[in-house]
């Protein structure tokens, strides 16, 4: 039996683990992919305090992971398929095990959304990508497009200029959403061409991508633009779809609603970071929410006191860590 189970090992989950474990809570973090979450594939994080020259996303989250481990948190890379809360014990199921905890922090972050245009599914992995850091080096001296005008699109377009000879940014409006400093960098970069008020209607090719069919929505003109790769950065959705058995309150886009202490309304369940309905999707904010969720979860566990949770024999509690194993 753990005090606190944390789903997700991005900045929110890892910071929750640091605070929770350091506060004396028996803490387990479960992460479906690699520790670090989305930010681990970000080339350079420039706006997290304490790193005047920036730091790679991988390095930053690796530091967070080591810090959590130092205080005794356990971290396992295994996909959670379900979470239920029968009585006062929270159960988190993977394909092989069931873990039990008194409190649960959901910090599962977001997944990229797609465009849904023709060719996207067919060419995913064959020229369509959602991760420039992962796939950018495959496009040395080639022509690529980045779709979207937010911070992700602009940052990743700049990253891709290291490899590609030309990078299109395809944006549906005539003004970028990205932070001013990033906008200045793409405007100054001669490898970048922005296709304004443009929508990719189809991604075309044979075995791999060869072009994108673009509509310029102000003039309703269409153009077939030759590209070797298309990177999609058109937004994100919360990675909480697997939590079907938790009656979470969500906003219209599916992000988890909480109160000011990050409680979801389900007893002992808290949410933190990008999967929560909040106004700032930033590492510093995710980390702060992780700390707050850990504090709230810790208070909840302390309030439960030493009364054994429903159906659990405390003397036999270690067996609960992996009850179906
Ligand atoms: P985002 O800010 O939601 O931007 C999505 C972009 O995709 C927008 O430009 C949007 O256009 C465009 N878009 C959405 N649906 C589209 C469609 N169907 N067709 C064409 N274009 C479409 O998403 P994000 O860039 O992934 O960032 C998510 C959050 O993380 C944001 O809060 C962002 O600030 C944060 N973030 C921060 C940093 C950083 O600080 N360094 C880095 C990455 C992400 P419109 O502009 O017209 O809506």
For the secondary structure, the number of strands is 17
Unreliable stretches (pLDDT < 50, length at least 5) are 309-325
Number of helices: 7
Query: In the CATH classification, which architecture of the largest domain applies?
Result: 3-Layer(bba) Sandwich
- Rg over CA atoms, rounded to whole Å, is 22 Å
User: CATH class of the largest domain, anyone?
Assistant: Alpha Beta
Instruction: Give the names of the bound compounds.
Output: NADP nicotinamide-adenine-dinucleotide phosphate
Provide the number of structural domains.
2
Q: Provide mean pLDDT, rounded.
A: 91
Query: What class, by secondary structure content?
Result: alpha/beta
β-sheet strand percentage: 25-35%
N-to-C order of helices and strands: EHEHEEEEEHEHEHEHEEEEEEEH
Termini separation: 14 Å
- Percent helix: 10-25%
**Main sheet makeup:** 7 strands, mixed
CATH topology of the largest domain: FAD/NAD(P)-binding domain
CATH superfamily of the largest domain: FAD/NAD(P)-binding domain
Outline, from the CA principal axes?
Answer: elongated
């Amino acid at each position: 039996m753990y005090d606190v189970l944390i789903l997700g090992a991005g900045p929110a989950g890892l910071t929750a683990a640091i605070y929770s474990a350091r506060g004396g809570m028996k803490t387990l973090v479960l992460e479906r992919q690699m520790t670090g979450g989305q930010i681990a594939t970000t080339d350079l994080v420039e706006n997290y305090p304490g790193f005047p020259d920036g730091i790679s996303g991988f390095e930053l989250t690796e530091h967070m992971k080591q810090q959590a481990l130092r205080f005794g948190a356990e971290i396992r890379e295994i996909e959670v398929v379900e979470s239920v809360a029968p009585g006062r014990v929270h159960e988190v199921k993977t394909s092989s095990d069931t873990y039990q905890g008194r409190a649960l922090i959901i910090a599962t972050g977001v997944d990229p959304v797609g465009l849904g245009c023709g060719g996207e599914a067919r060419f995913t992995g064959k020229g369509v990508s959602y991760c420039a850091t992962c796939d950018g080096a495959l496009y040395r001296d080639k022509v690529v497009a980045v779709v979207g005008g937010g911070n992700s699109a602009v940052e990743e377009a700049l990253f891709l200029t290291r490899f590609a000879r030309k990078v299109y940014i395809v944006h549906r409006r005539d003004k970028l959403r990205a932070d001013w400093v990033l906008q200045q960098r793409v405007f100054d970069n001669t490898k970048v061409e922005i296709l304004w008020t443009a929508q990719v209607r189809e991604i075309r090719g044979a075995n791999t991508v060869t072009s994108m069919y673009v509509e310029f929505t102000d003039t309703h003109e269409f153009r077939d633009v030759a590209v070797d790769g298309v990177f999609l950065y058109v937004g994100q959705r919360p990675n909480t779809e697997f939590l079907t058995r938790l009656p979470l309150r969500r906003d219209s886009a599916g992000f988890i609603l909480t109160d000011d202490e990050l409680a979801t309304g389900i007893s002992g369940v808290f949410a933190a970071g990008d999967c929560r309905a909040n106004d700032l999707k930033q590492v510093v904010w995710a980390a702060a929410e992780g700390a707050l969720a850990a504090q709230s979860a810790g208070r909840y566990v302390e309030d439960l006191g030493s009364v054994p949770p429903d159906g659990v024999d405390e003397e036999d509690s270690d067996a609960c860590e992996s009850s179906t194993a």
